[in-house]
Amino acid sequence: MKTLKRLAISLAIIFFLLVVAVFALLERDDGKGPVLKDHPNAFWSGAEDGGSFFEITKSSPPNYYVEIRHESGDIWSKGWVTHVMKDGGELSNEDFMGYDGGDEVYLQDETALKLNPVLVK
């Protein structure tokens, strides 16, 4: 009976140490997305499985020139979008949520904006 008790205690201690070791080795997430060296203001929208960077490079509200980049920093698409914010503010890099290719880019509020190669007034 003593042997069984010692075995159970030993297994419990080993299990506890393994749990502590796993948590100590886990990668900590600081909540910040990746940063492009050549485009530090570009906003990352995505997860571990992929995403894209958004950067407004020219601004003349309500018109904004947006560059969308792959994780590598290579340009994926670019163009002008027109959008008036509900609060009257200006569109920012952080307002963009996603791009699936084509000529539409999506904002955090799920608004779809059409990318135009030239500024349409």
Account of the 3D structure:
The protein is an alpha+beta fold and 121 residues long. The chain has a domain at 43-114. Helix content is 20%, strand content 35%. It has one helix and seven strands, in the order αβββββββ. It has one helix at residues 2-25, and strands at residues 43-47, 50-60, 63-69, 75-82, 96-99, 104-107, 112-114. The strands form two sheets. A four-stranded antiparallel β-sheet has the order 1-2-3-4, with no helix packed on it. A three-stranded antiparallel β-sheet has the order 5-6-7, with no helix packed on it. The longest helix has 24 residues, at 2-25. The chain starts with a helix and ends in a 7-residue tail after the last strand.
Give the strand line-up of the largest sheet: 1-2-3-4
Question: In angstroms, what is the radius of gyration?
Answer: 24 Å
Residues in helix, %: 10-25%
Low-pLDDT runs: none
Distance between the termini: 87 Å
Number of strands: 7
Topology:
Layout: H1 2-25, E1 43-47, E2 50-60, E3 63-69, E4 75-82, E5 96-99, E6 104-107, E7 112-114
Antiparallel strand pairs: 1-2, 2-3, 3-4, 5-6, 6-7
Task: Summarize it.
With 121 residues, this protein is an alpha+beta fold. It is built from one helix and seven strands, in the order αβββββββ. It is 20% helix and 35% strand.
